[in-house]
Amino acid sequence: MLPTVAWENNSVVMIDQRLLPGKEVYIRCRNYKKVVYCIKTLAVRGAPAIGVSAAYGVALAVLKSGTGDKMKFFQEVAFAIEELRQSRPTAVNLFWALDRMTARLNSLSNLPVLEIKKKIIEEALLIEKQDILINQKMAKNGAKLFKKGTTIMTICNTGVLATAGVGTAFGVLNEAHKQGKKISVVACETRPLLQGSRLTAWELKRAGIPFRLITDNMSCHIMSKGLIQSVIAGADRITANGDTANKIGTYMLAVLAKHFKIPFYICAPTSTIDITLKTGKLIPIEERKAEEVTSLKGVKTAPDAIKVYNPAFDVTPNELIAGIITEKGVVRPPYIKNLKKLFKEIR
Asked: By the 8 A CB rule, do 241 and 331 touch?
């Protein structure tokens, strides 16, 4: 299996996550518009993977530009970056990667166009490489939180498929497993698109981690039986106060975990932290098509012409989060103070 997202022969290759686990099909993007399409349609998903894909989208935009006029070149690339920005609204890694690529592009303005192209591709490759290292650090930081024999609940997909590396929350689970902690996992199926049953179960099985799959509405019952000692999830955006947007259903797990006195953790790289937003109330929540709820793989599961709510994410308030696992360590409450301190250290 190739990496989730990779640069190969001046194109971007990514596994089509819509077809997993039934088929392993790879999409080759030869221009940035195909990258936009893949992000919009969830062929590639997971905040870090979207960020890497966006960076490679910019690389394709500069590579495929046929003009030698520097002003026109910069205009073409700026247009491409704006299209990439519009692909999905919630995961901040998308905007983080595009801001970084834009800053790098601006820093190269005095160079010839051919040299700019080379260095922009190098920057995108660096973002992928750094994501791999960040994943490894998060995995080691998070694995320390779990005792031997712990059963951990998780939601959505946070593994290799969601990143360029070993994953965020899944990376922690995999590291704890490799350390011989004999953990087991309860994976929520994650309606409406079943990222938990299609993707996470597939990755857990491949990693040899003992697990059980449940429907999302079983989580309260399972926790009430004392079968869960911890909950861990990924994130698509974390605000300055620690409020966290993640796949729809995460907030529900956090509320239940609080009720049953089970620690609830978030695992995400610092690129997922949006220090410019004060609270989760300011996070834009993507509303997706009704068909995702009313049908499953083309088979209708609801009456025609009905109204549907289909938010792709919800926001977990900071008071429900025991800790945020990052590559820099585990951030604990009070989050306003400690996330601010974390960003000062990074800068």
From this structure: no
Alpha-carbon distance values, 161 to 45, 140, 194, 217, 266 (Å): 8, 19, 14, 24, 18
Helix or strand or coil: residue 229? coil
Residue 171 pLDDT more than 90? yes
Domain boundary, last residue among 81, 113, 136: 136
Question: What are residue 188's DSSP bridge partners?
Answer: 214
* Residue type at position 268: A
Q: Distance between CA atoms of 219 and 14, rounded to whole angstroms? A: 32
One-letter amino acid of 44: V
Domain ranges, residue 244? 138-346
Torsion of CA 190, 316, 159, 229, to 10 degrees: -90
**Quick one: 12 and 26 in the same domain?**
yes
Q: 151 and 234 share a domain?
A: yes
One domain, residues 107 and 91: yes
236 is catalytic: yes
Backbone angles phi, psi at 277, to 5 degrees: -100, 125
CB neighbour list of residue 90: distance below 8 Å, 6 or more residues apart: 236, 237, 245, 283, 284, 285, 286, 312, 313
84-96 tens-digit pLDDT: 999 999 999 999 9
pTM (two decimals) = 0.96
Q: Using an 8 Å Cβ cutoff, are 171 and 46 in contact?
A: no
Q: Which one of 69, 216, 236, 274 is the catalytic residue?
A: 236
For 102-117, write each residue's pLDDT tens digit.
999 999 999 999 999 9
To the nearest 10°, report the CA torsion of 319, 325, 326, 328: 100
Where do the H-state alpha helices sit in 152-276?
Answer: 169-178, 195, 201-207, 219-224, 250-259
Rounded distance, CA 345 to CA 19, Å?
41
Residues 86 and 164 in one domain: no
Cα 78 to Cα 32: distance, rounded to the nearest angstrom: 12
| DSSP 3-state of 152 | strand
Dihedral sign (CA 280, 159, 207, 19):
positive
CA-nearest of 314, 317, 318, 290 to 304 is 290
